[in-house]
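Hi R.,

As promised on Friday, here is the backbone we talked about, encoded as structure tokens. Could you run it through your design pipeline when you get a chance and send me back a sequence?
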């Protein structure tokens, strides 16, 4: 049991270190190539543009707390590093905020993965017994999302 927990914490620590290395690289890319890089990404798609603009506003309003929180939001996790670098945020504050957010995200993701893996036979039983209900739910959800997207586009 202890060896198992040691392995899990080892995986968590390595994942945090690797994530921090990547966020430092993205911060540096934003710091040294900031506006040019962000302009190119913004022109690529509206989603990129919206994500970048949102990240800029949030960092300017809330500072380091926004970086920590952004690490918990899937798409902003990448943009926040580039934007923080381009805004020349204090590097040490950026690392502290990123470390906190990355740690929470990685611990939750790894623990969730382990829990799912440990309960795989239970999940197989559920999916076998409730396959029709699951398919109906998924299809209805997709239809609702498509209709919603169509209505928003029409406005």
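Update: got your reply. Pasting your designed sequence below so it's all in one thread:
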């Amino acid at each position: 049991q202890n060896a198992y927990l040691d392995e899990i914490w080892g995986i968590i620590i390595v994942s945090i270190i690797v994530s921090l290395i990547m966020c430092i690289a993205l911060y540096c890319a934003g710091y040294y190539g900031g506006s040019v890089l962000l302009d190119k990404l913004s022109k690529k798609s509206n989603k990129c543009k919206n994500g970048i603009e949102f990240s800029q506003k949030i960092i300017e309003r809330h500072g380091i707390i926004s970086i920590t929180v952004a690490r918990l939001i899937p798409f902003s996790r990448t943009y926040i590093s580039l934007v923080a670098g381009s805004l020349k945020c204090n590097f040490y504050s950026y690392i502290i905020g990123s470390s906190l957010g990355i740690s929470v995200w990685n611990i939750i993701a790894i623990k969730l993965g382990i829990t799912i893996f440990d309960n795989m036979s239970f999940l197989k039983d559920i999916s076998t017994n409730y396959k029709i209900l699951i398919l109906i739910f998924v299809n209805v959800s997709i239809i609702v999302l498509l209709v919603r997207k169509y209505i928003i586009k029409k406005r």
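One thing I noticed while checking it: The helical segments are 2-44, 46-62, 64-70, 76-86, 91-118, 120-129, 131-154.

Thanks again,
M.
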